[in-house]
Structures
1.
Amino acid sequence: MSSQSRVAIITGANRGIGYAIVKALASAFDGDVLLTARNSKLGEKAAGELNASGLKQIKFYQLDVTDESSIELLRKHVVSYYGGVDVLVNNAGVLYKTASTVPLPEQARETVKVNFTAVLNLTKALMPFLRSHSRVVNVSSQLGKLGKLKSTVLKAKFASDSLQESELVDLMNQFVKDVEAGVHIERGWPPESSAYYTTKIGLNALTKILAKDAAALSGKEDILINTCCPGWVKTEMSGPGATKSPDEGAETPVYLATLPQGSPAGKFFYNKSIIDF
Ligand SMILES: NC(=O)c1ccc[n+]([C@@H]2O[C@H](COP(=O)([O-])OP(=O)(O)OC[C@H]3O[C@@H](n4cnc5c(N)ncnc54)[C@H](OP(=O)(O)O)[C@@H]3O)[C@@H](O)[C@H]2O)c1
């Protein structure tokens, strides 16, 4: 393996949409595809199945996206083994069911940690090693549209093109504090009990910021960071009543991971088309 070999990294890929993205990228991408998962046994099993089907370029690497030491090990591995990163798909995510008995503050803290903070930390850790022409894809949701916010003040803050990363982090921390204080509904956060909506709104806003950071990297060109909704997909998260298969859910993320030069960045996609945030 030379340090010039290309590599694609997919998070939360032991099952669901992440697994389907790995499978599809193995054909669409010229290089190794790192199937990452927090649970080594589940990740090795998933990669083993795909290897057995002939997709030998799929490799397993352990990654808990919420663990900074785990991110650091991955970063060191890809830098020493591949010399850079060509594709990163931030797919790992959590959604507490409405029937969950986990207290709302704990749901809010954990959901922000996985769906928002982990994407920020992992992408920033890998940002200096993104090669020219690399692609970063955030797997978000249409539940993360600005219209889900009831407060016009919050809406304006999340929508602002001048929103800074530190201000966005403050907004996500404020959300957690408001849930802890039991005032998140009156403060205009999405009325639904799940923190999922807010974290995906945060992820969509983060995508715009990271896309600008990538465009400003000196000596690099054509790095495109976008966000997308995969649709309503039959996985453990959405259950058997959803409309798309995992392979169909993987289509837009894989499309964004293989966008040709000159394509848009910092945009929100659904069914391979740009939609409003
Ligand atoms: N399914 C849908 O209808 C739908 C719709 C819109 C958006 N999405 C988004 O699509 C993405 C994939 O969802 P899915 O439907 O495939 O869900 P899923 O079947 O529940 O899979 C979620 C994946 O994320 C992993 N994960 C969770 N926390 C992690 C952590 N700390 N570190 C590493 N991996 C972690 C899980 O690992 P474990 O197996 O170890 O738990 C699992 O592999 C999510 O971001 C979700 O929000 C899904």
Note: The beta strands are 7-10, 32-37, 58-62, 85-90, 130-139, 224-229, 268-270, 273-275.
2.
Amino acid sequence: MNKKSIMFLALVAIAALIALSACGNKTNNNANNAGNAATGTAPAGTPAAGGGEAKSITVNAKNFEFEPAEFQAKVGDKLTISLNNTAGNHGLAIPELGVNLKNGESATVTLDKAGTYDFNCSIQCGSGHDNMVGKLTVTET
Ligand SMILES: [Cu+2]
């Protein structure tokens, strides 16, 4: 190998390193931005403007519907969802949020993404089971 080709290889290696590190920075920035979007840019512990409230809702379940079947929250809210069976034995699952409640249970979720989250009964409760659906709508603040 002559001197010229060694220099060439060295340059290629350096260029590759620069490209890799530039890429790495970009990835990190994206991750940071995603983090900021989720938590808001306010310092830790400070609720994001408009959202970030602690809210709670009790969903009543009977044969065969949820009441309310639809409810809303804002991005950043800490929402505690409780399930109360008023008739029959039902569960409440919100698959996208990892929530699955039995009667009398509750779960607290931090809503960091706007969207519509479907929920459904998670216990085979009878003929109307498949109709036991509802949705949580999370809106930007
Ligand atoms: Cu059911």
Note: The beta strands are 54-62, 65-67, 70-74, 78-85, 92-94, 99-101, 106-110, 115-120, 133-139.
